[in-house]
Amino acid sequence: MIKNLSIISKVLLVTSTLLVFILSTSCSKDKTNSHVRVESCTESKIKKVTSQLSSENKKTFSYTYKQVCNNAKTTIIYIPGGPGQGSIDSSQIKSLNVANVIYTDPRGVGRNFNYWKSDVDGTYLTTKNLALDIINVIKKENLSNYIIYGHSYGTVLATVLTHLIEARKDLNDPQSIVLEGTLGKALVVSEQRDAGNRLIKHFESTNEFCLHCKLQPYISKYSSSEVGHLGQTLLSAGVDAENIFKHLEESNKIKTTLKKNLESILAKGGLDLYNKVACNELDPTGFILDHYEDRKYIQVSGGSCENIDMKDPFNSRDFQVRAPIFYITGTHDISTPAKQALHHYQQQPFSQKTFICVQGGGHEAMSYNIQGCSRNILNSIVQDDHKSLKKSLTNCRLKTEIISPQECIKSAP
User: Fold this and answer.
1) Are 64 and 48 in contact (CB under 8 A)?
2) Total-model pTM
3) Going residue by residue through the chain (413 aa), what tens digit of pLDDT does each one get?
4) What are phi and psi of 203, to 5 degrees?
5) How many Å apart are CA 400 and CA 190, to the nearest integer?
6) Which of 113, 218, 287, 324 has its CA 20 to 30 Å from the CA of residue 211?
């Protein structure tokens, strides 16, 4: 038995630390200062802005973010997953350097851990209030050419953030938003578990990667949470699982990598933020003690959200946006199955939508599966060049194409 292996969507949603790209250019409607110019990004450094607890409670706190300058006309706002994952002190993503980049840690996490001094009980930890912090960053930087890139839970925050920006007259709208590993509505646990079981069967039937076989030697050596995270990482990698496992094994980095990743989940308020935001908006169970037995996931009753009523379940239909949306979805993503992206896609009738399907891609397809072409993909989105984007997709190692979400779902295992 591999307990916690299924923290299967929970761990990946929280540790989906790698990817999340954003890009930007001109604004979609007539607003103040809506003119094309090179953003005033001259020095890469940690910066601060004053933010408020909420739109109603004007009590302030200091919000920290990181700006990386690449002498570009566009800024990428990096929104990590979780909720509870930061990005300021994590490994910087080279693909993002096609633009200037703003890295963020959500209030209560990482560089913004001191937020708890202003909100001891976490009363104001909501997606809308997390969006308020980024709005204050956009205002301070006076951004006119920017793209919002959200990964996993970051797609929820990116959607809400864009909706709020477009309702204001004092901010320029984003050029577009990029959503990878999209959440279209509150999680359905059975949907994730079923996706995981289908993927395991797919690996076994095609002999691509025997998850059960590979993990067996580590059950007695490592903690159940560590083995669970390793299994989740490999499942996220999809068809690349074998190569990633060999790399970790040959470089003797398994123990160090798992320890570091697990600590990043629990450190500096990450789990507290997860339980505050996820339990109220996204996740009916929270962290659960699912386990992996007889080559399938079995749900165990209970979870960190068990005694908390979901007060404000997220649904993308409540947050309409006009900015163009680029969806990036892996067919092997079990944390945010393609059906989630389909729901989001169907709830956005006013946006020009482009659905990029990565055949065999996992929850972090741009980092794990098509890393070699991800920079060109992002550059095409920054340049708003659809012809170049299609060409970029043909150079990806895995089959990656612009199709309908329905077609992408049909090709999933």
Assistant:
1) yes
2) 0.85
3) 333 334 434 444 444 433 333 333 333 345 544 444 445 677 789 999 999 999 999 999 999 999 999 999 999 999 999 888 888 987 667 788 899 999 999 999 989 999 999 999 999 999 999 999 999 999 999 999 999 999 999 999 999 999 999 999 999 999 999 999 999 999 877 777 787 787 777 777 776 777 777 777 776 666 665 676 677 677 777 777 777 777 777 766 676 666 665 555 555 577 788 888 998 999 877 765 555 666 666 665 567 777 788 899 999 999 999 999 999 999 988 889 899 999 999 999 999 999 999 998 988 899 888 989 999 999 999 999 999 999 999 999 999 999 999 999 998 87
4) -60, -45
5) 27
6) 287
């109220």: which residue's tokens? Answer: 280
Structure tokens at 319: 């947050």
Domains detected in the chain: 1-39+67-100+139-413 (3.40.50)
Of the candidates 406, 282, 280, the one whose C-alpha atom is nearest the C-alpha of residue 343 is 406
